[in-house]
Amino acid sequence: MTERALAKLAGRPDLRAIAAWVRKGASVLDLGCGDGLLLKHLAQTRAARGYGLEIADEKVIACVANGVNVIQTDIERGLSGFDDASFDYVILSLTLQAVRRTEAVVMEMLRVGREAIVTFPNFGQWEARWQVLRGTMPVSKTLPYQWYDTPNVHLCTIRDFDNFCATHRIGVLERLVFRDGSVVRFLPNLRGSVAVYRIRGGG
Predict the structure, then answer these.
(1) Do 170 and 164 touch, CB atoms closer than 8 A?
(2) Three-state DSSP class for 179?
(3) May I ask the CATH architecture of the domain 3-200?
């Protein structure tokens, strides 16, 4: 791992949580995999094997440079090219809020993967609520975009995602909430900035 890759992992507690949850030798599909550094890290530390899906040309090129198997495709079009339960884990890391067909994508993850890992910025954090009360859209380290240039289309809170899982009979196997790299256990929906879920269908 390069210093850049290690620095990225150190600055992303959700990525560290994912790496801790993926068992050794597992098969992994990473949706919106970016430059592929998470998959590379999982291959090196957990002997994981698998693919990344990415649509942006420059990120696909970065994946190839990092030695990661990557397929250039739009995850919004579904995962019909993959059989049921063809991966141990399907990962969607800090991409949920930018997905337009959220329900369909999550259900496809649970079809293709025996388990899914989803991470997202928590719109319910108190700083975000305070900014909305003051009449502006929130901007923070985990929500760094201005309203006019944001890729985010479906922001949600931890409580929203809990309700989504309950109504769709999705089992929550584990959940971690972070703030500034530390785990938040007291009032996570109010205090946490990033949520990490390990889920399974038919719960």
Answers:
(1) yes
(2) strand
(3) 3-Layer(aba) Sandwich (3.40)
**Locus of tokens 């305070």:** 130
Q: What is the predicted pLDDT for the residue at 5?
A: 58
Would you call 63 helix, strand, or coil by DSSP? helix
CA 31, CA 161: separation in Å to the nearest integer? Answer: 19
* Contact by Cβ (8 Å): 124, 159: yes
Encoding tokens for residue 46?
Answer: 């957990």
Pick the closest to residue 45 from 92, 88, 1 (CA basis): 1
Q: What is the 3-state secondary structure (H, E, C) of 79-90?
A: CCCCCCCCEEEE
pLDDT averaged per 10 residues, the chain (length 203): 60 86 96 92 92 94 93 89 95 90 94 96 93 91 88 91 96 95 94 96 76
**Dihedral angle of Cα 136, 141, 144, 146, to the nearest 10 degrees:** 20
Task: Give residue 153's Cα distance to chain centre.
Answer: 15
Q: What is the rounded CA–CA span in Å between residue 43 and residue 49?
A: 6
**Length of the chain measured in residues:** 203
Dist. CA 127–CA 17, nearest whole Å? 24
- Please calculate the CA angle 112-114-116 and round it to the nearest 5 degrees: 80
